[in-house]
Here is the input.
Amino acid sequence: MQKGIIKKYREKGLVVPGVYDKVFKIIMKDKGCRDYLIEIIYELTGIPKNYIRENIVIRNSELPVECLEEKQKITDLVIEIKDSIINLEMNNFYYKGLIERNDIYLNELRKLHIGQKYIHIPKIIQINFDNFNKFKGKTIRKFMILDVETHEKETENYEKYHINLQLIKEKYYNKEKLTRLEKMVLLLVLDKIDELKEVSGEDEIMKRVEEKITKLSKDAAMILCYDE
Here is the structure.
């Protein structure tokens, strides 16, 4: 049975897609794919690429719990860039409470350290890769805390992005024009080697991600874990 599953993936040119948590985390933490991560952050937030490259630190994604009864809180990826903390989440399925769960992660990341002043709390940014169609109409949504009438921002220190991977995938299959950012994140949702090669083309940054996904998908254990 297991050999049959592995044979099917290899004969049909299938890959374990980047929406699978294990693959997503490996790609985003891999030094060979670092420019891919930097480009995505830059395209969304506008933080200069050189500034990100010079200051990026990958943090422990396991957030502290305060008592035995409290649930373990493990984010997909937490990045520190001097005065900003960025939380990346791969949301493979939508369920009631998902947004609230991810908000809890943000609240944990905003907690003050002993002796730290409120004005020194870093900017908190969450980037959600949504493999579903909850926020329709646009491929990328930006959320902030705003006044409902004037749209005046309450604070600049809180941003959330939702990337609609399913809508981007639909645009690709309908042969609609994609932006560079849309192409980059599309690599995470495709599950065929030939499609990954088509989208990445001759782009060096995207080719590294395509090659990483292809390499990971040759691992029999990865295929079996994903298939299960």
The longest strand covers residues 84-91.
